[in-house]
Structures are given as C-alpha cells and as structure tokens.
Amino acid sequence: MLQIKNLTKVYEGGVQALTDVSFDVPKGQFMAVIGLSGSGKSTLLRCINRLVEPTSGTVIFDGEDVTAASDEELRLIRRKIGMVFQHFNLVQRSSVLTNVLSGRLGYVNPAWSLINRFPPKDVQKAMVELARVGIEDKAAYRADELSGGQQQRVGIARAMMQDPKLVLADEPVASLDPVLAHSIMQYLEKINQEDGVTVLCSLHFLDLVHRYADRVIALNEGKKVFDGLPSEIDDEKFKEIYGREAERVG
Amino acid sequence: MKKEVKRLGRSIGIGLAIVFGLVIYAYGFKVIKVNLDETRSPRRQEQLVRILRALAKPDLIEFEQTEYLVDLPIMVPCPEGGYIPPEQDTSKPYIVVTPSCADPGSMAQIEGFNFAPNAEGPINFIPPSQVKLTLGRFQADETGHFFLTVKLPNRKTTELNHLTATTRTRVGGPSLSQNAIDTWDKIVETVFLALLATTLGLLFAVPLSFFAARNLMKDVTSPLLNVSLSILALPVGAYLGAMISNFAGSTVNLLLKDSPLLNLIGALVGCALLYFAVRWAVPADELQQPAIRLRVMRIAVLSLAVLVSLLSLYMLSSLAMWIGNTLEVRLGSIGFLGTFIADLGDILGMTLTVISALAGAGVLMSLTDRLGRKIIKATTKPMAKGIMMVMSAIAGAALFFMIMAGLDWLYQFKNAALTIAWPLGLGALLGLILSIRLNPRDNFPIGLVIYYIARTIFNALRSIEALIMVIVFVVWVGIGPFAGVLALSLHTIAALAKLYSEQVESILPGPLEAIKATGANRLQTIVYAVVPQIIPPYISFTMYRWDINVRMSTIIGFAGGGGIGFLLIQNINLLNYRAASAQMLAIALVVASMDYISSRLREETI
Ligand SMILES: Nc1ncnc2c1ncn2[C@@H]1O[C@H](COP(=O)(O)OP(=O)(O)O)[C@@H](O)[C@H]1O
Ligand SMILES: [Mg+2]
Predict the structure, then answer these.
(1) Could you tell me if B76 and B102 lie in one domain?
(2) Which residues on A lie below 8 Å from B527 (Cβ)?
(3) What is the helix (H) or strand (E) element at residue B157, kind and residue range?
(4) Which of B518, B523, B533, B605 to mutate to test the interface with A (most CBs of A within 10 A)?
(5) Residue B167 sits in the same domain as residue B184
(6) Which value does ipTM take for this structure?
(7) What is the pLDDT of residue B65?
C-alpha cells in the first residue's frame, strides 16, 4: 500500500531531517510514528504527499511513484491521501462547511469551485462527515468560533471528504488536553476500522501508541531506530528511542 | 590602564561624532541658504502680513452692492473772482470742500455729512479728461460724518473738475461667490479622482500582488524545456488571441454596428450558448480520465464557445455604446449616466483585445507545457536533454531578441548587428549554458524569476511620484483630471501590489499546506487558503491608500492633473490669495473628513 525506500531529506541550510528511512505500510494498518520533537516525524509524513520535497529516495503509494509524479499526477495522488495536522490548519475565517468541503477540491470542477459552488452530493457528504464526528450543528459557524477539539474534528471531516485510502495524522492530539485526545484518537480508530483506511499517525505519548496502534516505528535524529509492535517497546528500547536521560512515565 | 585608554578613545570618538554632526548641519544650512535677514526685513514682513490677512479671509461669500455717488464740482486753480459751488441737497449725503477752489498741488479739506453710519469709500478727483484719480479713502463715524484732508493733483485747467465720494451698500443677503462655486466643482472632481484611482488601482493590484508574493511563487517550478516552450508560446499565443479578438470585433462591427436589437439578441444567445457549452464540457466531478474522443469533442466545443463568447461580448460592447449614446441625448441633465454606459461599452471593447491576447497566451502556454511533459516522459534522458538544449537556446535567443526590440523601439539604434545578431547570439548562448547545467527533469524556479521581475517593476514604479508621472499622461491625454486619474492609478497599482503581496507573504502557512494536501490546484489553493486570510488586511490597506490618494489628488493639479490643485496653483500664480485661501480651506476640510470617514470604516470592518 505504502512503501518508503531510502527516504532522505536535507533541508536548505543543511539540517539532515531524515536519513535513509525505509518501511512498508500494509493496507488497513494503524501505524504510529514516535520520536522526540525534532526527530523528523513531521518531515517524514510531509515527504509522503510531497508537501516537503524529499532529497532522495522513493515513496510508492498504491503502486504509483509519488516522488516521480508531475504536478498534475501529484494532485491526483494527493486527493487520495487525507491529512490531519497538529494545529488543525483550518482556514479560520471560513465556515466549518467550507472547510470540510475544501477536502473535495481535488475532485470537483475547478471552475465552479472557484465561486464556491459544490455539487449537492458533496454538500450532503460534508454534512454526513460532520455528523460522524458529532458537530453537524456547527456547519454554519466560522472555524475560529470552535474549540480546539471541535476544530480537529473538522480537520478529520475534511480529510474524510477526500475518500482517502491513507490518512496522515501529524501529532493530531498534541495541542489538545488528554481527555479530548482520546476522543479524537477514537475517530481515527473508527476511520481505520470501519472504512478500512490506512492510518499513519505520529504521536507523542506512548500510552496512546499502546492503546491505538497496530504497529509503531520510532525515529531518532532522522534515523529509524525501531519498527515493531507497541508491546515490544521495553525499557531498553525506550532509552534508545528517547535518549538515555529520558524517564519513562505511564 | 587599559580601561582608561578605552574610555579616552570613547570620549574622542563621541567628540569627533559631535564635530562631524555640526559640520553636516553647517553644510546643510549653506545648501538650504538659510537667510535670517530676510525674515526680519520690514518689506518681507509687510508682504507676509498682507498674505496672511488675505488667507484669513477666504473668498467664499459676496453681497450684492449698490454704489452711491456724491458729486461736488471744484475749480483748480481758482478762476478770477472766486468760485461758489452749487447748492447741495442737505437731505441726502453731501460733501463740502474748503476751500471751494484752490491751486494745483495744494491741500483741501473735505467734509461729508448724512452718510450711512461707518460708510467708507474712495474720494476721487475727476478732471475733464474723465481719467479719475483716487485722492484718498474716507471713513464716516456713527453719525455718518467724516473729515478728510487731501492733496489736490498738480494739474491746471480752466474747466470744471469734480470731486466724488463713492460708497457701496449691501442690498440683499450673502451669496456664494463665483470662486466658492468653482472650488466646490473642483473639490467634487478631486474626490472622484481619488475614488477612481483607488478603484482602478485595487482592481489591478489584487491579481498582480500574488505574483509578487514569495511564498506562493517559490512553489511554481517547471522543467527548463517547458519554460523554453512557454517563452516561445507566449508571444505567439498573445498574437493569435489578439487576432481572433480583432476578427470578432470587426465582424460584429461590420454586420451589426447600428442594429441594437440584433446585438441584444446576439449577446443573449451567445451567453446562453456559453453557459450550456461550459456546463457540458466542464463536468462537475471527474473521477476517471475520460476517453480521448470525448476530450477532443470537449476541447472543440470549448474553443467554439470561446469564439461565440468573444462575439457576444463585442455585441454587448456595441450595444452598451448604442444605449449609452441614446440615453446621453434623451436623459438631459443626467445624461452623464448614458455617457458612462457608452464609456463602459468602449472600455469593454478595448480590453477584450488585451484579455483575449492574455487568454491566447495562457492557452498556448498550457498546451506547450503538456507537450513538454510528454516529451520528457516519452524520450530517453539524452534525447530529452538534446531537445531541451535546442529549445532553450531558441527560447533564449527569442527572449533577448524581444527585449532588444523593445529597447530599439525606445532608442532607435538603427544598427542591425546590435539589434539582431547580438541578442540572438547572446540569448542562444545563455540558454545553452543554462540547459547544459540542468537535467531534463530538474525544476527550474520560474516562479521566483517572475517574483523578482514583478518586485522590481513595482518598486521602480512606486519610486516615481504620481506628481511626476502625470506629466507624461498630460502629454498623452491632455491636461485635466483624466491624466491625473491615470497617473494616480498607476502609482496606486504599484504601491498596493507591493503592500498586498507583503500581506500574502505573512499569511499562516498551515491552511495553505492543508488545502494543497487535498489535491487542490493552484488557483483553488489561492481562493480557499489565501483569499480568506488576506481580506482584512487588503481592506485596511485599500483604505490607507484611499487616504493617500485623496491627498495626492488635491495637489496633482499642480502638474496639470485636474482637481482642486489646478485652481489653487492658478490663483497663487495670479497672486489672488483670497481665492487660493478658499481652495486651501476646502482641501483641509476634505482631507480631514475623508480621514475621519475611512478611520470609522476601518473600525467597522475589522
Ligand atoms: N522547513 C524547514 N527548514 C529547515 N529545517 C527544518 C524545517 N522543518 C523542520 N526542520 C528541521 O528538521 C528537523 C526535523 O523536524 P520535524 O520533522 O519537524 O520533527 P518532528 O516533527 O519530529 O518534531 C528539525 O531539526 C527541524 O529543525
Ligand atoms: Mg512535528
């Protein structure tokens, strides 16, 4: 489903954010990516849909070479990959409905979409997706009138509008308090289990990894240092991932 | 020890800096020719007082006045036997002169009675030649009496002279002076000048600002082959577009010039056809690539639709001109509405050529872009590189040739080697060098190139004051507000595009990323992620520019750009300070009230 081969990213200015990272994600898996902040998690996820241009290596998604795609091909690939962000990345001044509908932009007629016209079935779908995350009553609100947890649900609804095969979630709960974190993670779990969408999710807390992930890979300074089941992370592995001084809590 | 040396060094440094500062200011005084003697000279002070007093009395109101003339004959010098003036009617204002006749150049006392309280006016001496000479001014007291000593003129005659005292009395209430009416007309012109310039500037600056925004343009990259093909496609496409548009225009002009009904029908039918063609050929939701036959059909239908829409737009333009010209005659005092409609039609006709040239260039460029991608995909690497090198050399030659053609038009070199051989050779060489250094699949940062060009143009235009630009426009379209609008608009475009683009650069990158990640294309990304974020700053910068334009439009008349400045500079040159004062007052009022309005609006909207 998703194959990452020898992915390397060096930012302008010489920061080596990823070094020779390879792994496969089979269809339907809920995979977690862990690591300290600055270890390259966001860079990895962004290289997959080329929001960040990889320096070398290949990304194969659903049999297509993402790294070699032209602009137009990339656009068609991107619409099959939903993305959920740590800071939600909603357009604050637009309505919730518009934010959700914008997940459909890759599919709709570009000319009509420029004047904010979407096919009725897309509008219906948007309402369904909002209902799934429990905020259909907020459709007409402006995005910045919503609380953080609600905004992230809009973010999930937007990703689901794409009918994605893969959802990339970059620390989706890191800016939320722990109670809300579980509710957001449960939505992702639901997507994964009910819709069969593959999920690649970077996370901060190990307890969330244990609770939700089928499999986990760990990054340290841009290198893959662990790939396996969450239960396999023992104290020794933990120190390898998070550094010698780290203290395991929870 | 070391510390003390350091301290000493610092003191010397500060001392030197102070001396240096003094020298700079001394030189400044010399350059500015500071002359304090002038400020103290009584002659200058007198002039200053005169001007200030005139400025304090703006010429806004006038009263209708009647002249009352009192006449007294006088002999200069005395005839033999003396002279007794005729009896005066003492029930009316009258004057008495003592002596009743006198030698030329001698003094005489004039006493006036029964004048209106506080009346004032000139005492004139009218010799037989009727060339009057003002001897002085009288000022009556509350009882209407005055007493004045004057010196008789040094002229002898045996005939009768006359002394007159003239007073003016107001009849009726105050009314606006001609100057006030002119000032009002011009101040209205000034405000509209600012309005049109701001609107026009806004219209152009908004789309242009995206080209000068680094965060948007840095993602615009393309293989060098595509860039080369686009450079070649741009002029060809623009030419073809302009040709098609001219063809459509002349067809409409030829067939339907004076038949508004046919124009109306044509325009409506054209719009309807366009609507259905677009609905059919641009489907709402496209999951799979459609079959090739369908795509060819769609392209054919769309091309036809474009031609039809061009035709109907020309019909619309011609219709608008007909309606406008008709209304202009019929509507009488609001005929300007008709003129406006006709002008809109004319503008539509004029811009259609430009629009279709741009569209032609765009279409051809996107076609060659596809062609370029196909070539890169379908050929082997060395082959692609070869094609790239050839195309890049040709494109470089073409680009340099076009630039040189522009320079040649300006400077008229009349030198074939310089205008043809050199640019062709140099361009080809540079294109070749560039293509040797790049791989066929490498992305060339064409967006950044456009970004830098746009930036440079805006900065250059911005640094030329509208007051200077207007000089060129005055030569083109004549003295008047139209030249002012054009100059101010051009400056506004450059200034706003710069300010706007900085706002685009400071938007949050997150939403942009999120929209890009959904598979939205570039235009959709701008509309959904950029536009909502930039609306508030765009509004506030437009208002800020509006304030500047109001100020500028008050003085652009100094250089012939119309508006109130035109009147002001005329009155100043005629030393008519009371009239000029009225215009200064109007400017102050307008600027202050527009400032107030725009700051209120800003509070409301943001
Ligand atoms: N746009 C960028 N330009 C330069 N360096 C960057 C950029 N984004 C991230 N980095 C650097 O790359 C490294 C990995 O960052 P990131 O992928 O954001 O890590 P994580 O998401 O795990 O916190 C860090 O050292 C960071 O400073
Ligand atoms: Mg991160």
Answers:
(1) yes
(2) 113-114
(3) none
(4) B518
(5) no
(6) 0.94
(7) 81
